[in-house]
Amino acid sequence: MNCQLLRLLPMEDEENEEQDQVMSQRDLDTERVSNNEDFQIPVDSSNLNEKSQDIDLSLSLGLQSPLPPLVTPSQSPLHHFAQDLSLSTHQVKISSRSHQRRRKNPTGGMHESETIPRIYPWGTDKRATVCGIKDLISQNISTITGKLKCKKCVQTFELGFDLVGKYAEVARYILTQEDTMHTRASEHWMRPTLPTCTLCGQENSAEPIIGENDEINWLFLFLSQTVGCCNFNQLKYFCKYTDNHQTAAKDRLLYLAYLTLCKQLDPDFVI
């Protein structure tokens, strides 16, 4: 019995010593906490570094919310605006080219033929071209007629001119005035003296009736020296179909018209 008691006593003493050590350690920890000595909360250092970097980046950019997603150039509003502007410019260019193709020739239609029906016996089937004097005389055509309208009595009438006599008059005027005209129509041609009205007797009042371009009585205007009554576009029409300049001033076009008609009537005419 005594031997068993002796064996138990050391074991109890060991247990008491372990309990005393645990209690003393607890007392020591409690004292350190109260004195704030080397007290740390265990944390994950890697997560702490990542969070601190995010906070520093947000503070440096002055942002309180996450960064917006990146916008690619193709998604940018300026990119779409540039595409729309480029498309609009392309459409304007196409519209401009289409308008130029549709624009009519100022001297006539878009596709005028070189030939027309003969309206006057002294005319030909070619535009702005008359027969020669020899051909007309061979056809017994010696008088050239045309229609006029009086500015005073507003009546229309027909007047005739002698072919040979009037041609000689115009040809003589060209030969004598060539040096002073300098390839431009004189004032006498630019502001022609009109025939006298045979109905009311008013002088310088009968204007020739011009009509459409392909209806102009060019030989009658030439003999009466009233080609100057034609407007600018009508003179351009004549020069176009007689292979003359069309971009000159009216006095230049008018001079070319008189000279060309004179050579059509007499191909041997030389200034």
Describe the structure.
- It is built from nine helices and three strands, in the order ααααββααβααα.
- It is mostly helical and 271 residues long.
- Strands 2-1-3 form a three-stranded antiparallel sheet.
- It is elongated, with a radius of gyration of 56 Å.
- Mean pLDDT is 78; it is low at 1-6, 57-65 and 98-104.
Give a quick set of tags describing it.
elongated; 9 helices; 271 residues; 7% strand; mainly alpha; 3 strands; three-stranded antiparallel beta sheet
Give me the side-by-side strand order of the main sheet. Answer: 2-1-3
- Biggest β-sheet, characterized? 3 strands, antiparallel
Which strand-content bin applies to the residues?
A: 5-15%
Q: Let me know the number of strands.
A: 3
The pLDDT mean sits at: 78
Catalogue the unreliable spans.
1-6, 57-65, 98-104
Shape: elongated
Topology order in helix (H) and strand (E) letters:
HHHHEEHHEHHH
Oligomer: single chain
Compute the gyration radius: what is it?
56 Å
Distance between the termini: 172 Å
Number of helices: 9
Write the layout of secondary structure elements.
Elements: H1 2-34, H2 45-61, H3 77-102, H4 133-138, E1 143-150, E2 156-162, H5 163-181, H6 187-190, E3 206-208, H7 218-223, H8 232-240, H9 250-265
Antiparallel strand pairs: 1-2, 1-3
